[in-house]
Amino acid sequence: MSSLPKTIDAVRAALAAKQMSARELAQAALINAEATDTNICAFLTFSPERALAAADRVDASLARGEKLGALAGVPVAIKDVIVTKGLRTTCGSKILEHYVPPYDATAVEKLEAAGAVIIGKTNCDEFAMGSSTENSGFFPTRNPRDLSRVPGGSSGGSAAAVAAGMCVAALGTDTGGSIRQPASFCGTVGMMGTYGRVSRYGLAAFASSLDHIGPFTNNVKDCATVMGVISGRDPMDSTSAAVDVPDYVTLLGKNLHGIKIGVPREYFAEGLDAEVGAAVERGIDTLRKLGAEIREIHLAHTRYAVATYYLIATAEASSNLARYDGVRYTSRGPQAGTLAEMYRSTRGAGFGQEVKRRIMLGTYALSAGYYDAYYLKAQKVRTLIARDFEEAFRHVDLIVTPVSPFPAFKLGEKAADPLEMYLSDIYTITASLAGIPGLSVPCGETQARLSIGMQMLAKHFDEGRLLAAAHAFETASTAERRQ
Prior knowledge:
By secondary structure, the chain is an alpha/beta fold. Helix content is 39%, strand content 13%.
């Protein structure tokens, strides 16, 4: 073949037509990824032995005439905060630089059971704390559309790998926008399901009440396929939901006639880049042309979202990261005379600046005398934000907003100003706090050809309607560009 397949359907067609074997595809994908990644730096670790073993299993199934799994032969990458048995998992941190897990995350098991070929682990902001992948303990990742710009974060490596054609799909994680924002910056589809829809077993915890695992793909159909594979109840994760998972792919192709879509004006206020706002408005107009009824709605507590999120998320991070102490599976700092000195040297050398900042913020918010004033109050405001969405979904079926206030920014542009960096997630953190599903779908470009994503949100466990609407929009947008 002249080029590698870019979609799941293309992979299946190539295998069925015997244009290449799964092993040949895996080998070609690995060669292409290693060559392409020289400039982009999306990967931390490649896994050729694991990939070729998985590909051989697919070829053996083909030879026996067996029905193939939904992801048979599909080259996939995994964000490095998701554990993989026998394959280094660093969480983008020096403190776990040499950690090799003894088990696979449930999402990884499900991918491989469906025939996926895992080619490697992708770079990310350390412990998923960041919005640009500049906080990796190893190196920054670059945006394939413009190597001088960030790919977004914290799942920037996964987004860049898919956007650059190094893999057909990738898993990322989303705590406050870490799938949707890099998907927008890199021009891919990225989805966060309802909290509890996808098992978190095997995900290194950042903020346990906010963390999600989800896919990056080149189109909505592939996103629906991967979501169908990784979703479902898992006895290893007590927070995973015992809610039936529909066949998302069969729900695609529906029209939008009668669908009510809410547009919250709080998301189109001061601070929104003019080109981003115009692209999303054009996207909303496309939805209107497809038969959707557009209604203005209000999410009144949106203005408190950033403060609320960065209290809750940092408090949970402070608790979760206490386990990285140099005693068990982490790297250990220089020799120390006491246990306290060992903790300090290990964490001082092992954690980066942003992780230390968030641990300190969270520890302060949870400390005696401040818990009620900060953490408890933030949880109350979180409830108000969730109620805003509940009220909105009594009147509309979906909500559409920008993903980020601006397109991909220059490497280093916001690194010195944490607050400015945090504001890049201002439109995504509300859905995370409410636990509802959301995705980013490309809706246009800036004059500099930087990608712009449109965020679509749905009520709890209504991923099917969300994917169907995104697919209808994608189909219409593709047709418009070809005219």
